[in-house]
Amino acid sequence: MKAAVLWERRAPLVIEDLDLADPAPGEARVRIVASGVCHSDLHHIQRESWVAPPFVPGHEAAGVVEAVGEGVTRVRPGDRVVSAFGVRCGECFFCQRGQPYLCATPYPTHVRLRRGDQAVTPLLNVGSFAERANLDARNLVVLPDDMPLEPAALIACGVTTGIGAVITTARVEPGASVAVIGLGGVGLNVVQGAVLAGAARIIAVDLVPYKLELAREFGATHLIDAREGDPVERVKQLTGGWGADYAFEVIGNPATIAQAYEATRKGGVAVVVGVAPEEATVAINAVGMMRTGKTLVGCNYGSVRPAIDFPRYVDLYRHGRIKLDELISRRFALDEANEAFAAMERGEVARGVIVFE
Ligand code: CND
Ligand code: ZN
């Protein structure tokens, strides 16, 4: 089975022929049809991270179930599915509290993929830059027959994280002002989440003119090119001098996280969506935190509950209330995976998607 493998941090991905084990108890073997290209994969490729190579990237996938392991009742062969990433055991302190995105159960360690004697890790418990993957059945959500798999794949991360940040994490209310810093596959979904929430002012910030244009198409009302000066001052100018009710950082950079906090008005909410480097810290004036009464909140996976929220996003798409096809700027074959990341780094795509025959 063909898969893209990272053997060494910062090296190019290599297409390999891997052996895939039979699905273990609780797993389903899924033939991957589409896998979105998310910056989180690139962080694991480029930065020191908690996942050691070799691994197969890809955590934004949809496909068709081919076989199921012992005890799997959620899905059957032939089901078309989208997969969440990570682990949601349903049993731990956090899952019991209805916060499965914080699940405390460790990732499984049994070997699903190998090349010869070498075990290869599926990134984030998915590893969908591969023709097939054994996926934790608890992560799978069955799709209706009329839901195409390419847009469905995006629900697995970018859509859920971005829209979830607005709707589930921050609970933006109608009429609010929202600033979004970083307009990639995730940030554009923050923009369309703000539209869904009824935000009145949606201020989109990026360094790339094409991203600003995309943000307008997704519903941004004001655009800020951050190359032209401090975006914090511009956000304040557009919000009566106070700052936005809500500001979202969707890059993963301590400097822009601080910008999001500064661009939030007194009493407002700044949301950290971007994944910063492991050791990074953010400098925020301490007494200002008290005086301004702002909330600084982290958004892990859009605070999502896949079984509840994925079908909602499918329905919103089917009723024309959210854009998914428009997020797919370019399709790549698996052996173009390196080029797919390069296109993302050059700012040329909203989302790239790896598609399989
Ligand atoms: P992508 O690379 O598509 O977008 C990032 C955007 O930020 C690009 O449009 C850049 O031009 C823009 N940008 C970079 N630097 C600046 C700057 N200084 N000022 C303004 N704009 C800038 O990435 P993505 O949308 O796939 O992912 C964005 C982040 O979200 C990334 O850190 C990823 O790891 C993270 C994320 C978080 C979660 C979660 O659960 N919270 C889930 N998935 C991805
Ligand atoms: Zn992602």
Helical amount: 25-40%
Indicate how many domains the architecture comprises.
2
Ligands bound, unique: 5-beta-D-ribofuranosylnicotinamide adenine dinucleotide, zinc ion
Shape: globular
Strand content: 25-35%
Q: Which class do the helix and strand fractions yield?
A: alpha/beta
Radius of gyration: 20 Å
Instruction: Give the second-level CATH assignment, the architecture of the largest domain.
Output: Alpha-Beta Complex
Low-pLDDT regions = none
Looking at CATH, the homologous superfamily of the largest domain is Medium-chain alcohol dehydrogenases, catalytic domain
- Classify the oligomer: single chain
What would CATH call the class of the largest domain? Alpha Beta
Major sheet size, sense and barrel closure: 7 strands, mixed
Total E-strand runs: 19
CATH fold category name of the largest domain: Quinone Oxidoreductase, Chain A, domain 1
Q: Helix segment count? A: 11
Overall average pLDDT: 97
SSE map:
Blueprint: E1 2-5, E2 14-17, E3 19-20, E4 27-37, H1 39-46, E5 55-56, E6 61-68, E7 80-83, H2 93-96, E8 113-115, E9 118-122, E10 132-136, E11 140-142, H3 149-155, H4 158-170, E12 177-181, H5 187-197, E13 201-206, H6 209-217, E14 222-225, H7 231-237, E15 244-249, H8 254-262, E16 264-272, H9 286-292, E17 295-298, H10 306-318, E18 328-332, H11 337-345, E19 351-355
Parallel strand pairs: 5-9, 12-13, 12-15, 13-14, 15-16, 16-17, 18-19
Antiparallel strand pairs: 1-2, 3-8, 4-6, 4-10, 4-19, 6-7, 7-11, 8-9
